[in-house]
């Protein structure tokens, strides 16, 4: 790289790292808080909680990286434009490739990182994550469910323990199982206990009844003397943890095991996930091109109606939304799979066309003016509120 290219790359890379770490910290905190009840209720240690929370990060990194690239590129170039550095570079006779090359190098590095995380690191961490989650669920049932209150074990499965008997058994046990779409089961038992054996843990209930309601709304009641409740759907002790398409490695998606229960139920979801893995890592390059098309040329301050960073992010969000939408459709229909690649192709070719024709990529004039009006009204209201607050503080308490 030339000196000016190293300068641009260094500035963009610093902003990229800052944006990436900031967003990851926020996402990590929000995701960790959603799991804290499960970990604390199941009696897990602080180390287990930190491990569980940290294992969520690799799945977030590939989603955040493209937006960090867009923020870094747009902010760097718009700042250089404000400081007239882009005008100086153009006046010196340097080609536009001196501006484009460092941003594209950053984008390619981000793409490679995203690919490694999505196809190597993330599947491994998700496997460990499901093991920890299943262990926590098993402990939750056997020891740490609070008496007298319903606790959610997983989506569609709730457990209540009326009391704990001195012998270690569970009294007045209620289990609600609505995990199946067309079947609701409610178990009532006078007593119950969790028994661990070589084949795993089993919830044994005695002296109770099962209320069963099918899709037609018909209800049947069956009394039982003893009943063994299957915990295989969520207990790791049985060794039957359920792995979905997003949890599988790239090698598995390329050559799936046709005997896998989840694959047999939703084979199209695995195909859609494979093509998603082939394309998602390219969004870093797409968003970098969008930022270059939006802020890559010197512009007068009067030309910009909305800050280039906002424009780049809005266009990037629109492209990413289109990608999510298409992948969702492809999970149920193979006809949508080619559209996944069309979204990426359009995301690359559109900004390239803007740059090749010396046009500035921006939102439609009408929408831009509406946004500018909204921002101006919000700024005026905030200024008025701040001035009002200062006036009230300066006036002090009323004299009597």
Can you walk me through this structure?
By secondary structure, the protein is an alpha+beta fold. The protein has a domain at 146-238. Helices cover 60% and strands 15% of the residues. It is built from twelve helices and six strands. The protein has helices spanning 3-41, 46-54, 57-82, 85-91, 97-144, 250-254, 261-265, 267-280, 283-295, 308-330, 337-356, 365-395, and strands spanning 151-154, 157-164, 170-177, 183-197, 200-214, 219-229. The protein has a six-stranded antiparallel sheet, with helices on one face. Strand 4 (183-197) and strand 5 (200-214) form a beta hairpin. The chain is elongated. The termini are far apart.
The unreliable regions are 232-239
Mass-distribution shape: elongated
Summarize the helix and strand pattern as letters.
HHHHHEEEEEEHHHHHHH
Number of strands: 6
Using the CA coordinates, give the radius of gyration.
28 Å
Number of helices: 12
Sheet with most strands: 6 strands, antiparallel
- What portion of residues belong to β-strands? 15-25%
Q: Average pLDDT across residues?
A: 79
Helical percentage: 55-70%
Q: Which strands sit side by side, in order, in the main sheet?
A: 1-2-3-4-5-6
Distance between the termini: 74 Å
Alpha-beta classification: alpha+beta
What layout of secondary structure does this protein have?
Elements: H1 3-41, H2 46-54, H3 57-82, H4 85-91, H5 97-144, E1 151-154, E2 157-164, E3 170-177, E4 183-197, E5 200-214, E6 219-229, H6 250-254, H7 261-265, H8 267-280, H9 283-295, H10 308-330, H11 337-356, H12 365-395
Antiparallel strand pairs: 1-2, 2-3, 3-4, 4-5, 5-6
């Amino acid at each position: 790289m030339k000196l000016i290219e190293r300068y641009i790359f260094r500035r963009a890379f610093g902003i990229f790292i800052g944006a990436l770490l900031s967003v990851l910290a926020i996402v990590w905190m929000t995701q960790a808080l959603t799991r804290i009840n499960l970990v604390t209720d199941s009696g897990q240690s602080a180390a287990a909680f930190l491990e569980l929370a940290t294992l969520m990060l690799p799945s977030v990194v590939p989603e955040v990286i493209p937006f960090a690239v867009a923020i870094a590129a747009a902010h760097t170039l718009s700042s250089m434009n404000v400081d007239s550095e882009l005008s100086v570079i153009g006046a010196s006779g340097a080609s536009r490739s001196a501006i484009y090359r460092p941003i594209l190098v950053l984008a390619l590095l981000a793409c490679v990182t995203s690919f490694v995380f999505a196809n190597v690191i993330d599947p491994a961490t998700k496997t460990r994550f499901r093991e920890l989650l299943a262990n926590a669920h098993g402990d939750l049932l056997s020891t740490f469910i609070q008496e007298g209150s319903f606790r959610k074990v997983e989506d569609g499965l709730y457990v209540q323990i009326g009391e704990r008997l001195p012998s270690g058994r569970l009294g007045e046990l209620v289990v609600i199982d609505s995990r199946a779409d067309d079947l609701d089961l409610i178990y009532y038992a006078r007593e119950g206990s969790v028994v661990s054996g070589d084949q795993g843990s089993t919830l044994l209930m005695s002296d109770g009844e099962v209320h069963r309601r099918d899709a037609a709304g018909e209800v049947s009641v069956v009394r039982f003397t003893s009943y063994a409740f299957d915990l295989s759907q969520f207990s790791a002790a049985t060794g039957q943890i359920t792995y979905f398409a997003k949890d599988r490695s790239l090698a598995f998606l390329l050559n799936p095991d046709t005997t896998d229960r989840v694959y047999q139920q939703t084979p199209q979801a695995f195909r859609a996930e494979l093509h998603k893995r082939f394309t998602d890592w390219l969004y870093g390059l797409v968003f970098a091109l969008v930022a270059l098309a939006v802020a890559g040329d010197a512009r007068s301050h009067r030309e910009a109606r909305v800050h280039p960073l906002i424009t780049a992010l809005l266009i990037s969000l629109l492209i990413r939304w289109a990608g999510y939408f298409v992948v969702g459709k492809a999970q149920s229909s193979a006809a949508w799979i080619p559209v996944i690649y069309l979204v990426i192709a359009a995301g690359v070719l559109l900004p390239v066309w803007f740059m090749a024709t010396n046009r500035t990529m921006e939102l439609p004039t009408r929408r831009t003016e509406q946004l500018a009006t909204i921002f101006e009204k919000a700024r005026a209201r905030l200024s008025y509120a701040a001035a009002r607050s200062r006036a009230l503080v300066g006036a002090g308490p009323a004299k009597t």
